[in-house]
Design a protein that fits this description.
Blueprint (H helix, E strand, L loop, with lengths): L8 H26 L10 H56 L6 H24 L1 E2 L2 E2 L9 E4 L3 E9 L6 E10 L5 E2 L12 E7 L4 E7 L4 H9 L2 H4 L1 E4 L2 E4 L7 E8 L1 E3 L7 E3 L5 E4 L4 E4 L2 E2 L1 E3 L2 E5 L3 E7 L6 E8 L3 E4 L9 E4 L14 E8 L2 E7 L18 H52 L3 H28 L3 H4 L2
Antiparallel strand pairs: 1-2, 3-20, 4-19, 5-15, 5-20, 6-10, 7-8, 7-11, 9-10, 11-14, 12-13, 15-16, 17-18, 18-19, 21-22, 23-24
Helix pairs in contact: 1-7, 2-3, 2-6
Length: 491
């Protein structure tokens, strides 16, 4: 065994071990103080990469979760306001039905009901103008899908969902391949008089059934007059001896049954209909076609489109021919970022149309050239809710029957919009909140397993390294004394 003074190898070995134990102890202290297993890339390079990716996902999903909760609150605000509008529309309908009972009411009572309608419509307009979430108006039309242009054949656009993928405007083409039609009977018939007696026909349309008496010797004008008196009750009108349903679509029909007598349609009795001939009937047809390649469903000229890029209701003008009709919309409406990425599938763009009285209802349709009482008259069908106010074309004094049609249409529109928002809230937003909550939970757990510290393991390592550090100091002290033994040789 050699004894050396200049180089104390045991001391160097003890110092090296002590330095390693010191680094380990410092690492233990850092991890215990931060609660993280990875404090720098040197701790676990691959683990750092994975944990940072997971951390970004968790942060984005938590924000998307917050976005979804805000969206749910906004939709709930709009729907609650529309619930009040629904209640007001029900009250308006009660007033209209009251006014139709003209035999039991006097003018002052009807005027009082008209005042009630005026105030209810004023309240609807106030709700439309003032309902907002933060600084955003919800029901005045500013949160709807903005239509910048549309073909004249398209009379109404109520767009509820639309997908924009970076474009500022998008154009859609409504391709009509099958034209909507009314039910029609006796087209081209020339009426001849029945000699003696009275003919009674039973006319049935979408609104109801009416027995109509036609005296011997009637002609086309008399036939039209007899039918058109009951148009509001049957949903059928006559023009030039042809029976038409007022509305278009496969749900519309015209049926004629001769109860007594004979209805002579052709000159010389070529096409008689009698009580033994059975029921003569015809049905209308719905429009058929597509919008940007996606087939649509229609009820007459009222189109419903549900696709990945567009959801809404579109109305075509009566008599619209087969062809292509375009409309253009701008990037508008309410955009909800419901997930973490920027793709179309991660966000929803919803439009809430105005519920102002000048928008609830439909454009009034006028059926022209009706022979009524020997002259020419018109029947007005539909219109906007604003026409029910005092002095309007469908107030209680002017046309309470049409007012009832308008109110029913307005109730249907508001109900459908509420249903759409409710479905969006419950089936899209609420489900998205549930899915995001679970995803955040699982991703956070994954990140924690990689990045967070296991304190039980770390404290065990810390205790071990503390003991090694203290023993290392003791050994270093002892190794420094080894070279002093040389003094004993030097006597």
């Amino acid at each position: 065994m050699g004894l050396r003074i200049n180089t104390n190898v045991p001391a160097l070995t003890a110092l090296r071990t002590l330095s390693a134990n010191d680094r380990n102890l410092q690492g233990n202290l850092e991890r215990l103080s931060t609660g993280l297993r990875i404090n720098s890339a040197a701790d676990d390079p691959s683990g750092l990469v994975i944990s940072e990716q997971l951390r970004a996902q968790v942060g984005s999903m938590r924000q998307a979760l917050e976005n979804s909760q805000h969206a749910s609150n906004l939709i709930g605000t709009a729907e609650a306001a529309m619930n009040e509008v629904s209640d007001l529309l029900v009250q308006i309908r009660e007033s209209v039905v009251f006014a139709l009972n003209s035999g039991g009411n006097d003018d002052s009572q009807i005027d009082a009901e008209q005042d009630s309608i005026d105030n209810a419509i004023k309240s609807i307009d106030r709700i439309a103008q003032t309902t907002q979430f933060a600084n955003r108006k919800l029901l005045d039309g500013s949160s709807g899908i903005n239509v910048t242009s549309q073909a004249g054949a398209i009379t109404n656009l109520d767009l509820q969902n639309i997908a924009f993928d970076g474009a500022s405007v998008q154009q859609y083409t409504v391709g009509v391949t099958v034209v909507a039609s009314q039910a029609a009977l006796f087209s081209g018939a020339s009426f001849a008089a029945t000699s003696g007696g009275t003919t009674i026909i039973r006319l049935t349309g979408s609104e109801g059934t009416q027995d109509i008496s036609i005296a011997s010797g009637f002609g086309v004008t008399s036939f039209d007059d007899a039918v058109n008196i009951f148009t509001s009750d049957t949903g059928v009108f006559a023009s030039g001896g042809v029976l038409y349903s007022v509305e278009f679509g496969s749900s519309e029909s015209v049926s004629v049954e001769v109860v007594t007598g004979t209805l002579i349609l052709g000159a010389g009795g070529a096409a008689n209909i009698s009580a033994t001939s059975g029921v003569q009937t015809d049905s209308g047809a719905n429009a058929q076609g597509f919008i940007n390649g996606a087939a649509f469903d229609a009820d007459g000229n009222d189109i419903r489109i549900v696709s990945d890029v567009l959801t809404g209701n579109i109305s075509l003008a009566d008599g619209t021919a087969a062809g292509a009709y375009t409309f253009t919309v701008s990037d508008s409406g309410l955009t909800f970022q419901l997930n973490k990425d920027e793709g179309v599938q991660d966000r929803e763009q919803v439009g809430i149309s105005s519920i102002h009285s000048s928008f609830l209802g439909s454009r009034a349709r006028t059926i022209n050239s009706l022979s009524t009482g020997g002259g020419t008259g018109t029947i007005t069908v539909g219109g906007f809710l604003s026409s029910l106010v005092s002095g309007g074309s469908s107030d209680l004094d002017s046309d309470p029957r049409n007012a009832l049609r308008i109110v029913d249409l307005a109730i249907d529109e508001v109900t459908k919009r509420r249903a759409h928002l409710g479905a969006f809230q419950s089936q899209t937003i609420d489900r998205n909140i549930n899915a995001l909550s679970i995803a955040v939970e699982n991703l956070a757990a994954s990140e924690s397993s990689i990045r967070d510290l296991d304190f039980a393991q770390e404290t065990s390592d810390f205790t071990k390294n503390q003991i090694l550090y203290q023993s290392g100091i003791s050994v270093l002290a002892q190794s420094n004394l080894i070279s002093q033994s040389v003094l004993s040789l030097l006597g």
